[in-house]
């Protein structure tokens, strides 16, 4: 579980009002744009009988200066649980203004 990892920054305090449909794709596109590695999704919790399973997913992304982790809401399908985690991550990045920071690029100097 990434929350117990001391090298992981946890973003908390989000509400579930952000739309989750297509959030995995949007988060993936954001990571590509920022030149971050692909998001990593993990099912943190499964519960219920086989015909009424519930899933909780966590998404982890590595940025330039840290690793961010977000846990989504409980959902009845794995993909919905992953989209929930992704949507909360997007919302947290937006609220923290993280995704609007410029990507640091190496400075190249030419010696004469």
UniProtKB/TrEMBL annotation:
<dbReference type="InterPro" id="IPR014720">
    <property type="entry name" value="dsRBD_dom"/>
</dbReference>
<feature type="domain" description="DRBM">
    <location>
        <begin position="22"/>
        <end position="95"/>
    </location>
</feature>
<protein>
    <recommendedName>
        <fullName>DRBM domain-containing protein</fullName>
    </recommendedName>
</protein>
<dbReference type="GO" id="GO:0003723">
    <property type="term" value="F:RNA binding"/>
</dbReference>
<dbReference type="Pfam" id="PF14709">
    <property type="entry name" value="DND1_DSRM"/>
</dbReference>
<keyword id="KW-0694">RNA-binding</keyword>
């Amino acid at each position: 579980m990434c929350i117990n990892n001391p090298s992981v920054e946890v973003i908390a305090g989000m509400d579930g009002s952000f739309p989750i449909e297509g959030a995995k794709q949007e988060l993936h596109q954001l990571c590509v744009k920022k030149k971050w590695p692909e998001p990593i999704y993990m099912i943190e919790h499964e519960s219920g009988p086989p015909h009424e399973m519930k899933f909780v997913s966590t998404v982890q992304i590595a940025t330039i200066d840290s690793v961010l982790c977000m846990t989504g809401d409980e959902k009845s399908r794995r993909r919905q649980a992953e989209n929930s985690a992704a949507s909360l991550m997007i919302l947290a990045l937006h609220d923290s203004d993280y995704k609007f920071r410029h990507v640091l690029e190496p400075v190249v100097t030419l010696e004469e």
